[in-house]
Amino acid sequence: MSETSSVMGRARAQPSRFRQWLSDTGDALATVFFPAGCRICDELLTRASRVPICDACLSSFAAPPFTKCEVCGQPLPSFAPAESQAKTCPACREKTYAFSRARNLGVYQGALARAIVMLKFEEMEPLGTWFAHRLAELAKLEGEAMEADVVVPVPLHRDRQRERGYNQAAMISEPLAKALGLPHRAVLLMRTRPRPDKQVLSLAEHWSSVRGAFATRPGSQVDKLRVLLVDDVLTTGATLDACSRALLDSGAKSVVGLTVARAASNPGPAPAKVKRS
């Protein structure tokens, strides 16, 4: 590299470092002059950060060690008979899901559940970025099983997107794609049918409400892509499954899922089976 190119490269890097310094300094000053409490436990925050959650609560988000389903990541009971304990949950033994694997940071309960509610209803972008970095670390630990060509968020219906103004899944998926060095395709997948107006859905209603409710956007290139699908919570797996079926029907090679949290159990009814190659 020539000396001129090297100087130009350093010059381009300096504004970025300066902006980061200003941001860090501003956060530090705000912490000193306007001390705030952790949004989870109310303990006084002692560090500069745009994520209003203390280190102790952030550390608690990680799930305790447990045996989990190698397909969907559901915690498996430690008291299960040895012959069924090893690898998969009942839903995955029945090949319930179209995605080949799903992983998460922790169980949807306690502090983690409260943080996800903050992300979902308060548009807390720094928290979405924090989650994204943890999910990137998880994906790298999983190795080949989570390799992908493109990152796609689970979409909201256009009416919900317009009403809320943002998609919390995209607030995670975009920085996640950047951390993994992958393309981010926020509009590759769309929800074609809105969620029913009913506030609380039964399990059967939930599965029915998402089955066939997603499609790839016309003109999108999906053929032979390995898709990493991102959402905030996996509860029954119905939404991730419906999105995966739409992608596979459009020619995707495979779909894997990453979510911030996973329900401790899967009470959902099994949909039609999907044959995995």
Overall residue-averaged pLDDT value: 84
Q: Going across the major beta sheet, what is the strand order?
A: 1-6-5-2
The CATH class designation of the largest domain is: Alpha Beta
When the domains are counted, the total is: 2
Tell me the CATH architecture of the largest domain: 3-Layer(aba) Sandwich
Overall helicity? 40-55%
**SSE class:** alpha/beta
Strand proportion:
5-15%
How far apart lie the N and C ends?
48 Å
Q: Can you write the helix and strand succession as a string? A: HHHHEHHEHHEHEEHE
Question: Can you describe what's shown?
Answer:
- The protein is of the alpha/beta class.
- It has 2 domains: 52 residues; 205 residues, Rossmann fold.
- It is 42% helix and 13% strand.
- It is built from 10 helices and 6 strands, in the order H-H-H-H-E-H-H-E-H-H-E-H-E-E-H-E.
- The strands form 2 sheets. The protein has a 4-stranded parallel sheet with strand order 1-6-5-2.
- Strand 5, helix 10 and strand 6 form a beta-alpha-beta unit.
- Helix 6 packs across helix 8.
- The radius of gyration is 21 Å and the shape is globular.
- The N and C termini lie far apart (48 Å).
- The C terminus is likely disordered.
Task: Output the keywords.
two-stranded antiparallel sheet; 2 domains; 277 residues; 42% helix; disordered C terminus; alpha/beta; Rossmann fold; globular; 10 helices
Write the layout of secondary structure elements.
Layout: H1 3-33, H2 55-60, H3 82-85, H4 90-93, E1 101-107, H5 110-122, H6 125-142, E2 150-153, H7 158-164, H8 168-180, E3 189-191, H9 203-210, E4 214-216, E5 226-234, H10 238-249, E6 254-262
Parallel strand pairs: 1-6, 2-5, 5-6
Antiparallel strand pairs: 3-4
Helix pairs in contact: 6-8
